[in-house]
Structures are given as structure tokens and as C-alpha cells.
Amino acid sequence: MDIKKGSKIITVSSKGHVTIPLYFRKRMHLSSGDQLEMTLSDDGRLILEKLPSSSDWKKLIADIPVESVTIDQDGCYDPEKSPSFDKWMHEE
């Protein structure tokens, strides 16, 4: 059996458990409690993807401005009262 470069062989326990080798945990920045999504591809490969943690989401949204936007019955807003929203609406 040939082992691909960068791959590791792991063993499935009698209960179906596997341990992700430290090499991969470090490369994926995995910590205890992190969640992974597992997908089975059409060609039979298992794909593990790290889901964003609450701290990841906090970092992602930290710079998003928060302001109240009032939209009238015609779907219009006042750009002077909502400058960040207006800027966002006009980004390309």
C-alpha cells in the first residue's frame, strides 16, 4: 500500500472512533470542542471541514458597523442617518 505524501494512516476503533493526528489538528487549528462537518464525496472520499466557532464569528463580525436604518414605505432611507449602510449599499 502506497501512502501519499502528507497523509497519515489512522485506525477505526470498535466503536467507530478515530483520532485526528496532531499534524492535522495543528494544520487545521483544531481545539477541543471544535466542530467538524463530514461529507462523503461521490467517489467515496471523506471530507472533514472545520466549522467556524463562536470566537471565529466574533472576529468576523467585529468590524461590521452597527447602526439603525429606517426604510420608508417606498424602500428609501436617509444616507446621512445611516452612512455605513449607505456606503455598504454602494460598494461594488
TrEMBL record:
Q: Does the keyword Nucleotidyltransferase apply?
A: no
Q: Which InterPro entries match?
A: SpoVT-AbrB_dom, SpoVT-AbrB_sf
UniProt keyword terms in alphabetical order: DNA-binding
Q: Name one GO molecular function term.
A: DNA binding
Q: SpoVT-AbrB domain: from which residue to which, for each copy?
A: 7-53
What superkingdom heads the lineage? Bacteria
Enumerate the SUPFAM superfamilies for this protein: AbrB/MazE/MraZ-like
PROSITE patterns referenced in this protein's UniProt entry, alphabetically? SPOVT_ABRB
Protein name (Swiss-Prot/TrEMBL): SpoVT-AbrB domain-containing protein
Q: The organism's lineage?
A: Bacteria, Bacillati, Bacillota, Bacilli, Lactobacillales
